[in-house]
Specification:
single chain, 83 residues, mainly alpha, elongated
């Protein structure tokens, strides 16, 4: 059997530019458990930690961020669950 292809030209695959980590490089903010405003940007409206594939945080900085968020929760700076 012979396959028939449409006359449309082949399109190039979609290319997504790799985002850079917001915590690495010059003038990058330091991850600190007392900086509630910075930590809240990486928590969902339900109180969950947003994954690095969405926030484009590097694996090393994501670990630091999750530890800082958990520490801030334990000390009462951040809630465990938002309602």
């Amino acid at each position: 059997m012979i396959e028939e292809r449409s006359a449309a030209p082949a399109r190039k695959p979609f290319f997504r530019r790799r985002k850079t980590c917001p915590f690495s490089g010059a003038n990058a903010p330091k991850i600190d458990y007392k900086d509630v405003k910075l930590l809240q940007r990486h928590i969902s409206e339900r109180g969950k930690i947003i994954p690095s594939r969405i926030t484009s945080v590097s694996p090393k900085k994501q670990r630091e961020l999750s530890i800082a968020i958990k520490r801030a929760r334990f000390l009462g700076f951040l809630p465990y669950v938002l309602q």
